[in-house]
User: Fold Elongation factor 4 from Weissella tructae.
Amino acid sequence: QRQENIRNFAIIAHIDHGKSTLADRIMETTNTISNREASAQLLDDMEVEKAHGVTVKSRTVRNYYVDANGDEFEYNLIDTPGHVDFNYEVSRSLSATDGVLLLVDATKGVQAQTVANYRLAMDANLTIIPIINKIDNLMADVEKTAAELLDLDERFTPEVTLHISAKTGLGIESVLEAIRDRIPAPVGDPNAPLKGLIFDSKFDPYQGVVVQARIFEGTLSSQDQLRFMAKDVQTQSKEIGFFDPMSRKTTSLAAGDVGYIITGIKDPRAVQVGDTVTTKKNGAAEPFPGYQQIEPMVYAGLYPKGGEYSDLKLAIEKLSLNDAAFQYEPEQSEALGMGFRGGFLGIFHLQIIRERLKAEFGLDVLTTMPNSTFRVTVKNQDAPLYIENPNQFPRYNELVKVEEPYVRAKITAPNEQLNDIMRLAECRRGELADLETIGDMLLITYRMPISEIAYDFFNELKSVSHGFATLSTERDDFGPSDLVRLDIAIDYVDIDALTFVMHRLRVESFAQEITQRLKDLVPRKLQAMPVQATVEGRVIARSDIPPLRKAAASGGKTSKKQQQMRRQGQKAQIELPQTVFDAILDMN
Ligand code: GTP
Assistant:
């Protein structure tokens, strides 16, 4: 296909506004798939994956559109991922396009993700085609929706806004024509050194890393020795091709094209979204700017519950193969034995990993309270330490400076929710950085510690906004923070799995609550056992776990001598059930 007849685009919309329906209709109108297949929701691709052994989730589908003049165009419809944890990946897949269809449900109007997606498209300098969908619906308010779109962007006038029904097919031809007329054809020299942007990367146990790439410069040939620039990984590709929507093998992909590469690389972390592919010989001088390595936001301990360490080890190794964002290393705890310290994108991600260990491997794991990384400077040492485990947090009298990582949190929500959202963000130590309004929508930016956002912030935001708010986050610098270390001792023995690092303002009430809860959750013994919470050498909260049987208690108080003996005695034989850690998570 000549470059001027290629269009690369994506559909962006708020959830349920009709993105999949429109995608199906485009594929059907261009005869990429038959009507029957369309009704079977081909975009649900498990079957395709099974049939072809290639991981093709969120694949880019190539369609051929023949217009009224009989001219043929190659329409590459690029799918974008949907979850907030993967915001960076959404913007990467958008930068593989030259334009987007911004779809708005006429029964709902402009909503939070409409605005958030619009912003991402603007940031990527894309042509935007505004489309009002579901005009067949009796509840449709086309006029109001049109006014909201105009409010969002003054260029979205009635003349440029399309009115369609993705369901009945009404107006689909106008969409196909607008793609041809308004979205620019790709530019880029097919004879230049190869430069392709990786906008999707999946790991397949048989094929290794399978990526999707947009070729911006040069020509990718199936014979080429390739180089992925971020980590300087070299390989001979096993296969290149495109999806129509089945995988079709080709011998070359030229500037302007979009396609897949089966790299054969067996390390799932070797190539990630945002990377640049070039050739080993005569390659591109510079990669695309703005590459971000996927880094965990929070860390937590993972320990076998009942089962064997070796089973957990195997399961974790397997799991990490198809989840490049999940990282781990072995860790040992006095209280919990051998286990792992896992790195996750957020609490939600941690929950998914836990559920998968259960569902796919039948393993119950105990997870400790998650924390972010801390950056601390200690006396007589210039270089700061990066700490991922609260146990390694230095004693207070050695500390010079303590910092924690921040994010910029961009929240989009309806106007009337401003107060609720500000209250929530301020409780989480959010500092207001920016506030804009777009029509009925607010765009609020906060600078906030990762540790605050990682705990369920998204769920709370959903709840105070009745599901209307959206959240996207970007990493920001480390910032100074008044963090303190809290140690818990049960029966005079420090429990390493119960060491926490948190903000000074929260530690008092946290200590009170955890000592009270532990009193009820820790299995009882023959003697009464004190639970003590210590901060900076001072016990700030205490409770007593009652003895197993009243009769066994030797007249109440433990003697000084007994205390002494226990302190010197064996390490704690204290059992910590998952309920203890669940309760702690619950306390936030
Ligand atoms: P997610 O994949 O969940 O983000 O949703 P989506 O944006 O892909 O929406 P989807 O295409 O699944 O459509 C959501 C619902 O709206 C479905 O029940 C569709 O049948 C319906 N729908 C989509 N387009 C139209 C339309 O033009 N008119 C009417 N009446 N219903 C539509």
